[in-house]
């Protein structure tokens, strides 16, 4: 497993999660400096895969600015198209992002994101759904195929929700010029939602890239009084964290890495401190018994996503 850095929490002061630590600087300039420092620390700690999106506020531009200070062909960037950030860094905003899976939005966001070349490796549809019809939109799919060929990129989708598998299966059926269009799949996977298990073997067989997001279940893997129903999971995680001398975050990340080998697991760290803790995942390996014990905590994907829907931007 490779740990990548997701930049969703670096580009917007508000994010959907169980926030345990508020970002220190609330003014935009300090916030930006902190984000820049996390990127730099991540690089110094050996991270070479960075996931971003225009929908993450200033994250994509921050990544671009930071790349200009680097000269390392090993840095790989994945970005997305399909969401526009509209909250304008206003803590009281009620609408944070607008989804638009049209050819117009693809063309508009690609014009900006292509500045990430030559580091850009993966270009993804941000949160592909069956309802948005994006996987049936011939004009969009043809344009993605054009971008793939012209710029030698991997084309991907990110999926969210109880029907992640149905969307992945549909995406695997999309072929342009006799070749499958999609090479990369960014999927939610963690101890609570393990639905990816059903198709991960097939994705590996097809040599697709698997990127895991929300490995910490948006913070739900940390003991929380509001989630008493996970107390036995918290007990187990804390026992393992104690045994290996790491935090529960590292146990959760290592669980994902061992269950879905060859994947890239994204850290959603919002600070360098969290990132350093996350990186302790590679100081130990869970035993088969431990993996099985943790796997037993999975819940029904519908229940998982219902609970996820209740999380607030904060
Ligand atoms: N394509 C999509 O639709 C989509 C959706 C979600 C995520 N993603 C990608 O996946 C990446 C990761 O996902 P994610 O951030 O949503 O989920 P995540 O990794 O499950 O959760 C991140 C949460 O964990 C907390 N955290 C991390 N390390 C910690 C530590 N050592 N101690 C305490 N808390 C810790 C953070 O805390 P604080 O908030 O308290 O700082 C944050 O709340 C994102 O950055 C993004 O690139 C993509």
What does this structure look like?
Helix 2 (28-44) packs across helix 3. The protein has a single domain (2-309), classed as TIM Barrel. The relative contact order is 0.15. The strands form 3 sheets. An 8-stranded parallel β-barrel has the order 1-2-3-6-7-10-11-12, surrounded by 5 helices. With 314 residues, the protein is an alpha/beta fold. The mean pLDDT is 93. It is built from 12 helices and 12 strands. NADP nicotinamide-adenine-dinucleotide phosphate is lined by residues 6-9, 17-21, 51, 126-127, 158, 160, 186, 213-219, 222, 247, 249, 266, 268-270, 274, 277-278.
Radius of gyration: 19 Å
Morphology call: globular
Q: Please count the helical segments.
A: 12
Mean pLDDT: 93
Q: Enumerate the spans where pLDDT stays under 50 for 5 or more consecutive residues.
A: none
Please give the order of strands in the largest beta sheet: 1-2-3-6-7-10-11-12
CATH class: Alpha Beta
Major sheet details: 8 strands, parallel, barrel
Question: Which architecture name does CATH use?
Answer: Alpha-Beta Barrel
Q: Brief overview, please?
A:
By secondary structure, the chain is an alpha/beta fold.
Fill in the keyword field for this structure.
TIM Barrel, eight-stranded parallel β-barrel, 12 strands
Task: Please give the structural blueprint.
Blueprint: E1 2-6, H1 8-11, H2 28-44, E2 49-51, H3 59-67, E3 76-81, E4 83-85, E5 97-99, H4 103-113, E6 120-125, H5 138-151, E7 154-158, H6 164-172, E8 175-176, E9 179-180, E10 184-188, H7 197-205, E11 209-213, H8 231-244, H9 248-259, E12 264-267, H10 272-278, H11 288-295, H12 301-309
Parallel strand pairs: 1-2, 1-12, 2-3, 3-6, 6-7, 7-10, 10-11, 11-12
Antiparallel strand pairs: 4-5, 8-9
Helix pairs in contact: 2-3, 8-9
The structure holds NADP nicotinamide-adenine-dinucleotide phosphate.
């Amino acid at each position: 497993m490779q740990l990548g850095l997701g930049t969703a929490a670096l580009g917007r002061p508000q994010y959907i999660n169980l926030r345990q630590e508020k970002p220190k600087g609330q003014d935009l300039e300090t916030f930006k400096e902190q984000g820049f420092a996390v990127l730099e620390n991540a690089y110094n700690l050996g991270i070479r895969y960075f996931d971003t999106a225009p929908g993450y506020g200033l994250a994509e531009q921050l990544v671009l600015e930071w790349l200009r200070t680097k000269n390392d062909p090993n840095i790989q960037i994945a970005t997305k198209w399909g969401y526009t950030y509209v909250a304008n860094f206003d803590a009281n905003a009620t609408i944070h992002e607008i989804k638009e899976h049209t050819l117009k939005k693809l063309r508009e966001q690609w014009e900006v994101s292509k500045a990430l070349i030559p580091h850009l490796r993966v270009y993804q549809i941000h949160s592909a759904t069956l309802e948005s019809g994006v996987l049936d939109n011939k004009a969009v799919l043809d344009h993605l195929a054009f971008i793939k060929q012209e710029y030698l990129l991997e084309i991907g989708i990110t999926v969210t929700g109880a029907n992640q598998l149905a969307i992945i299966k549909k995406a695997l059926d999309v072929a342009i010029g006799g070749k499958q269009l999609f090479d990369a799949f960014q999927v939610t996977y963690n101890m609570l939602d393990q639905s990816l298990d059903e198709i991960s073997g097939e994705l590996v067989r097809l040599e697709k890239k698997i990127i895991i997001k929300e490995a910490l279940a948006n913070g739900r893997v940390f003991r929380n009084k509001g989630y008493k129903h996970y107390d036995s999971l918290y007990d187990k995680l804390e026992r393992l964290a104690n045994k290996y001398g790491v935090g529960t975050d590292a146990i959760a990340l290592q669980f994902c890495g061992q269950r879905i080998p060859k994947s890239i697991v994204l850290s959603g760290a919002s600070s360098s401190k969290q990132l350093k803790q996350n990186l302790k995942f590679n100081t130990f390996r869970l035993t088969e018994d431990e993996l099985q014990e943790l796997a037993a905590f999975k819940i029904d994907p519908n229940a998982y996503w219902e609970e996820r829907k209740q999380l607030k931007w904060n």
